Amino acid sequence: MRTAVPAAGSRDLPHPAREEIRLESVLHALSDPMRLQIVCELAADGGELACSHFDLPVTKSTTTHHFRVLRESGMIRQVYRGTAKMSVLRNDELDGLFPGLLGSVLAAAARQAVRLG
């Protein structure tokens, strides 16, 4: 997958262009419970959230890995705002590529959360 590569010394992070986002990468990103939780929280908020907002029961390095998988799959966009790394769901782009997929996954995740308590 070709991603936009940031300039040397830049704090910009590489993201796949819209036309490079692949269904199998998105489904892989959503297959992990921690990543699904991140996506659900981003969708519920509707805006940018700092990585430090997420209280995941994993180490910081594992959390970083999960955000990288989400970013490299095209699920989220991340930017630095000062010292905070902010994440936002690429909702419009994903819905344009895979109509109804994200909404269906989020609804299924909500039903599962209720079912499992």
UniProtKB/TrEMBL annotation:
| Keyword Transcription regulation tagged | yes
Could you tell me the keywords of this UniProt record? DNA-binding, Transcription, Transcription regulation
Residue span of the signal peptide, if any?
none
InterPro entries from the UniProt entry: ArsR-like_HTH, HTH_ArsR_DNA-bd_dom, HTH_MetalResp_TranReg, WH-like_DNA-bd_sf, WH_DNA-bd_sf
UniProt xrefs under CDD domains = HTH_ARSR (cd00090)
Q: Where is the HTH arsR-type domain?
A: 15-109
This protein is called what? Transcriptional regulator
Q: Which organism is it from?
A: Streptomyces dengpaensis
Tell me the classification of the organism that encodes this protein. Bacteria, Bacillati, Actinomycetota, Actinomycetes, Kitasatosporales
